[in-house]
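Journal club prep — side note

Before the paper discussion, L.F. wants everyone to see what a predicted structure for a comparable chain looks like in token form. Sequence:
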Amino acid sequence: MKRNLVKRNLIPVLVAGAAALSGAGLVGHAAFAGDAPAERFVYLEAEGLLPALESFASNPAGTVEQAIARRQNNCCEVNWSSRAQVLFENFTPSARMTLRFEIPESARYSLSLVFTRAPNFGIYEFSIDGRPIGDRYDGYAPAVERSQPTDLGSLELAEGSHTLTLTVPDKNPASSNYFGGLDYFELRTAGATPGPQDAGAGPTGGPPGVPGQPAPAPQAPRPQARPDRRAPRLLVRVSPATDRRRPYRFTLSGRLGLPAGIRPADGCHGWVTTQVKAGRSTISSRRTPVTRACTFSQPVSFGNSRRFGARKRLKVVVRFAGNRFLLPEPARVTTVRVR
């Protein structure tokens, strides 16, 4: 596969009020007075979790050699969800790669993920904290493609650090190697709405089961992104620029500028995601719908300064997730003052 280490992060997901996480992903929950318990979810770009906690292969002689887990930018006529994936470069069976991630709150989570299939990719097995989850999935395909979001099952996870391990125990006879690729994964409690996945372009398809293994659950049809999608302009404003008294309140607003030839009925929909960062920590993450007028607005507030400590400025990162007619728009970054 073509190598390219350029990375431009795009993270499409619903969020509303979140615990701090690294820039690898978004966390959040949504509930209103009188509602059922809050829905919780964690959306993580696999490449944002690099470097891997472990990445190695055991060769037939029984010795251990390094297998490379690295970022790979879009290639081969495929667009990954954040314009990049983790490419697991491995040449022997029984290799594994482990990524560490954080869970903000204890709950029972369902896990789904998107992986890559290609002519030189092996068979995948997944585990959380060493516990196998899901079935075997064949990573072989005649051409490079993303899988559809694949449900692996559910499990109880406590607040704190956990690990996701991808193991390549074998390969399809038609595959030329034991490589692997992971785009993103998402954990959510029952009833939580998955993030919009039509932002990814390029060939997609559900992974067929490996012979002798249970077939994955069928996936519902998803709208296919048009191959001629255009890039919009993302116009963003945050006001006020300074709020030094608690509760610290800001309003993010903006609009999408449609390219020529795209009608509002086609282009004015989708989601804008917002992260507020204190240094490298994400202290708030939200998803806002684009209206039929191509506008969006999202209030953000903090009840006290413990969320951002002694920092005087917060960074606001805004992205458009894309839709069938429009490409994802990379981040627009601005800052606000809280002291």
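L.F.'s comment for the group: The two ends are 49 Å apart (CA to CA). Keep this in mind when we get to the figures.
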